[in-house]
Amino acid sequence: MPTPLTLFSLPCAGASAVMYLRWRRKLPSWVRIQPIELPGRGGRLHEAPEKTFDMLAARLCDEFEMNPPQRYAFFGHSMGALLAYRITHHLHARMRPLPVALLVSACAAPSRQDWKRYADKNSDTSLIADLRKQAGTPEEVFQNPELLTMTLGLLGADYRICASFRHEELPSLPIPLHVFGGRADEIHISRLKAWQLESTGSFSMDWFDGGHFFLRYHEEAFLSILVQRLAENSVELPHAALASA
């Protein structure tokens, strides 16, 4: 059995840690899934959310440093992928041990981010259109005015965070980087391949049927490959892969 590790998972825009809870029943025992809840939602609803991407990433890194596990990996979907990437860079800059791998899903590489896309989504109509296009929101939400209002409020706040992201020229991370994409997603393959520039470690890309939320509609196939990628990085990290390298 591969060496046990903790998989910290960050949610997409408009979502909470709940999106990963079902994985606890589906992942092998050597993978401990640990969803990361963002301020202002779910179990942290009472906390004030951050207003910019940099502030949120730095806050999450501060919290992570309080009780880091011995072996872990980061996974993020869409906005969560970008957060996982920036948190890892914060850890790198602070000379802290890095994750055994960074796994990013349905997210253009940092150098290919289009912040204007999110800045343009400033009305309920445009947010609803985005939810419909991405096909990741249950129909019950659209039929329930209270749920829809809550969803749009959270999505709008997250889009403002995404709109504040600016790419920085940062050192390549000395860890494996694995990318997952949906064949029907609007994110062009070139924008996903650009993730390769962010790592000096091994790199992989895996494709799945479906659009932006392929990991939900093709969950079994996705989790199978996710576990495979984690198993590839199940050996202990050499000292060169630590932030002090």
How far apart the termini lie comes to: 29 Å
Mean pLDDT: 91
Q: How does the helix and strand content classify structurally?
A: alpha/beta
Cα shape: globular
Number of strands: 6
CATH architecture call? 3-Layer(aba) Sandwich
Report the top-level CATH class.
Alpha Beta
Please characterize this protein's 3D structure.
The model is unreliable at 236-245 (pLDDT under 50). The protein has a six-stranded parallel β-sheet with strand order 2-1-3-4-5-6, sandwiched between helices. The chain is globular and about 45 Å long. The protein has a single domain (5-110, 167-241), classed as Alpha/Beta hydrolase fold, catalytic domain (Rossmann fold, 3-Layer(aba) Sandwich). It has helices spanning 53-66, 79-93, 115-119, 124-134, 139-143, 145-163, 189-193, 214-217, 219-232; strands spanning 5-10, 31-35, 72-77, 102-105, 177-182, 203-208. With 245 residues, the chain is an alpha/beta fold. The chain contains nine helices and six strands, in the order ββαβαβααααβαβαα. Helix 1 packs across helix 2 (79-93).
